[in-house]
Amino acid sequence: MKASDYIVQFLVDQGIDKAFGYIGGAVAHLYDSFDKNTGIEIVNTIHEQGAGFAAEGYARVSGKTGVATATSGPGATNLITPIGSCFFDSISTLFITGQVNTYEYKYDTPVRQIGFQETDIVSIVKPITKYAVMIDMIQNLRYELEKAYFLTQNGRKGPVLIDIPMNIQRTDFNPSEQKSFFESDEYKMMRIQGDKIDFEKIVEMLRVSQRPIILVGGGSRLSSLAPEAIHRLLEKSNLPVVYSLMGKDVVKDDYKYNFGLIGSYGNRYSNLALANADLIIVLGSRLDTRQTGTDLKTFARAAKIIHVDIDVNELDSKIKADVTLHCDIADFINTLSHYDFKLNLGQWLEKLVTYKQNYSSTTGIDGKAKVPNQIIQWIAQSSSDHDMICVDVGQHQMWVAQSFETKADQRVLFSGGMGAMGFALPTAIGATIGTKKRALVIVGDGGFQMNIQELEVIKRRNLPIKVFIMNNANLGMVRQFQEIYFEQRYIGTQKDYSVPNFASIANAYGLKSSTISTIEEISQKIHETLLSDEAEIINICLQEQMTTVEPKLIVNKPIEDMYPFLEREEFNAQMIIKPLEH
């Protein structure tokens, strides 16, 4: 068979039924092979970045490896942002780029370029992939393809890239005559061997703890069996839970002792809960400063920490834990659940419930409604149990993290480590095409403009995607930063920035749209819109343009002491551990 036919059939054999790309000369053979194979469909986007994010969305919701392809040169370099997004958020993805013929490639020749659109994409993306290789010898194709796929799924998941010259793609190929990676010594060495765990010690730490809490990170979602295992443990133990941004949808909000988002823009009640714990079980979180605060000495200062992660390099890299465990989270939780430990949590849970009652995510400490958070809450209330919530980057991301109460089978997809504006719309395309479920895109006016061209794919394929634009006519997150640190000089966020007529743009793509602004309109329209699956763009013009995300952690403050600050008497009354000097 032709080599490109083999590549596509290999993907089908792994259960992958969708791939995403943008056609170009250097992938024409590959595209033709996708088109001929009835076991898989290639989805053509309008920009390679859209294809990369769509592959990421597909991977996040399906658990399969997402595949994106692009031509050489600018096609390949346009994939860099989604590749980085998948690397930092540990998403299983395979990026396949075309390359010029091997006889046109410069290799070590001291010239800039020989072939048209020749670009050394492998060297460019090596720092943000688990593995990147150019397959320039046909006898290496089977081995390298198998290895690349294996690495997307093994251990801490992530992206790989294979770069395939055109003459390799069109070569006749017999895989049975070639060496298999899965029969190699390299494969045997790569398989993850987790730590042997002293569960008796961990159970004893739980038994003597008076204020235990579980911190659920993104790794808890990436371990495919972990969410169900965590659910069973919580049913048995009533242990309280908080989560990082990337752990948002692991434990649903109907769990009575889910105490929400922690960190720089976390809920006040969540940070109070974490700060006052005496034992923290960290599941798949890297404990970066957006979770711990910038002064690491103040974090968990009265607590013991058990840190579980599939990536040994994340253990003790930022916060020193009392127990570190290099293993799969599902394996850890499933074994822990077999132990009989009776916990007396009544007083602790009562305190945490009081925190949540006193410091609502939709009301400020001044008693005034936080309108953007309320809008997010309305979207959540009117959403269906199986919706996929795809969220862009900006203030609205934090409003969703604080106030969107997840239901049943809902997924919430954030761009975490990369924090890429333009993420949500194409990610929703991949998620919807991969699952045939409805997606709700929540995006700001800035992020929406970054990949707005992918509206054409929504129309062309009649996808059930609802887009809610939180439109404050400025780049709110950075503008809020400028407000605090740059004496309200709003260059780039308000000054020399503008917003188009989104309704007119939606209409140009043939999509239904509406613009709303009053509170009454917004509440009613959200409910009406979510009664159907018809693609629609809802432009929500926020009457208060100078929006803020509150509460917010200030540099060098401990996580429990957030701005706007509580009166000291009230703050001290909420603390179980000794407060730090103000």
From TrEMBL:
The keyword Transferase applies. InterPro entries: DHS-like_NAD/FAD-binding_dom, THDP-binding, Thiamin_PyroP_enz_cen_dom, Thiamin_PyroP_enz_TPP-bd_dom, TPP_enz, TPP_enzyme_TPP-bd. Keywords: Thiamine pyrophosphate, Transferase. Residues 200-336 form the Thiamine pyrophosphate enzyme central domain. Residues 1-123 form the Thiamine pyrophosphate enzyme N-terminal TPP-binding domain. Belongs to the TPP enzyme family. This is Acetolactate synthase large subunit.
